[in-house]
Amino acid sequence: MIEGGMVAGRCSHCRRAARREWGLNEVGKGRKGSMAMEQGGSCVRRGGLPRLWLDLAGGFGGLVALVALASSTLALPLAAAWAAGAVLLAIAALIRHFWSDPRRGLGPANRVTLVRALLVALLAGMLAAPAWVDAHPVQVAALAALALLLDGVDGWVARRWRCESDFGARFDMELDAFLILVLCVHLLAMDKAGPWVLAIGAMRYVFVAAMRPWPWLERPLRESRRRKLVCVWQVACLLLCLLPAIGGALATALLVLALALLAWSFAVDVRWLYHTRPQS
Hints:
The protein is mainly α. Helices cover about 65% and strands about 0% of the residues. It is built from eleven helices and no strands.
C-alpha cells in the first residue's frame, strides 16, 4: 500500500531511507536470510552474463511483450512504446548504479518490483500519446490499478523468502513515488485538474530535498493511523479520477481534498520532527 507517496510503513516523510544510500548489499547488515537469498537465485552466476544483466534483460523483454500486446489489441502508438523504453532504461541505469555487484541477481522480491517497474514505465510512456490516452482512459486506469495491486506482493515475497534489504525497500519506495507523480501528470493531461495536481506527486520530492538543509527531517516517525488513512484516500482519488465517469467539479473536489489532507499530514509530521529534533 502506498502511504503519502510511499509504501505503507515506509512513508515518504517518515523513512530515514529517503536520504540513505540504496543499500549496497542485497541482504542488509544484521538481517537474516543470506542463504535464502542464494537459494532464491541471486548468487553469482558461473560464466556467461552477470545475473543482474540477465534480470534487466528480462525486464526489457517483459516491456517488449507488454508493448506488443497493447499495440496489437489497442493500437498503442509507437511514440508511447519508445517513451516507455526510455523510462525503463533510466530505471535500469539507476538499478545498475546502486547495485553493488552485477554478478549477483536482484533476487525474488526485487524481481517482482521490476515487474511493477515495467507497468509504471508503460504508464509513463503513454504520456507521449495524449490522444490515445484520452481514447483509452479505462485501460490506463486498469494498468495503474494493477501496478498498485502488485505493490504489496514484493513485500510478501521478501518476507516469505527472507530477503528483505535496504535496496529493496528503497527500490519499492522510489517506484511508488514515481507512480504517484505519473498518475498526477495523467490527470493533468486529461484536463481533470490544473497544474496544482502535480503537488500531490511532487510533495514527497520537496520533502526529500528539504532534508539537505534540515537533516532532522531524516529521523523516522512513529506509526500513524492518520498517515495510512490519508494514503488510502490519496491513492483512491487518483485512481477514481482516471475513470471517465469522474470529472468536472467532482474530480476537482476529490483531488483538492486529497492534496489538502496530504499537506496536513506532512505538516503534522514536520511539526513533530521539529519539536523532537536533537538539540545541538
